[in-house]
């Protein structure tokens, strides 16, 4: 659980990677956090084939004014009640990645709002 984290003016913001671990799973929740003005990624979920299954839940958070706001590659990223704005790319769905949206996010004002489709996910 990452709560009330601020990453500002870094190369990358919040990076969750299961690529260095074989098998198993890595699950992280990011809540009430801000990733902004980072050169490359604000929130990046990453894994590799044969490595730990990686899933990140983002809630009540901001990804802004960076290269890419949200990026999932070989991983799952779930986003709810969050803001993604002012980035070169708002949400980037990489190889074998999925970004799920609960439909209550503000993803707008990015040069390219999304690269690859976000997958709708119903709230329960």
Report the principal-axis shape.
globular
Total strands? 16
Q: Share of helix among residues? A: under 10%
Cα-to-Cα separation, first versus last residue:
21 Å
- The helix-strand sequence is EEEEEEEEEEEEEEEE
What would the average pLDDT be, to the nearest integer? 97
Placed side by side, the strands forming the largest sheet appear as 1-4-7-10-13-16
Give an overview in words.
The protein has 124 residues and is mainly beta. The chain has one domain (2-110). It is 0% helix and 55% strand. The chain has no helices and 16 strands. Strands 1-4-7-10-13-16 form a 6-stranded parallel sheet, with no helix packed on it. Strands 2-5-8-11-14 form a 5-stranded parallel sheet, with no helix packed on it. The protein is globular and about 40 Å long. The protein starts with a strand and ends with a strand. The mean pLDDT is 97.
Write out key terms for the chains shown:
124 residues; mainly beta; six-stranded parallel β-sheet; five-stranded parallel β-sheet; 16 strands
What's the short story on this structure?
The protein is mainly β and 124 residues long.
List the helices and strands and how they pair.
Layout: E1 2-3, E2 6-8, E3 12-17, E4 25-31, E5 34-36, E6 41-46, E7 53-59, E8 62-64, E9 68-73, E10 76-80, E11 83-85, E12 89-93, E13 98-101, E14 106-107, E15 112-115, E16 119-120
Parallel strand pairs: 1-4, 2-5, 3-6, 4-7, 5-8, 6-9, 7-10, 8-11, 9-12, 10-13, 11-14, 12-15, 13-16
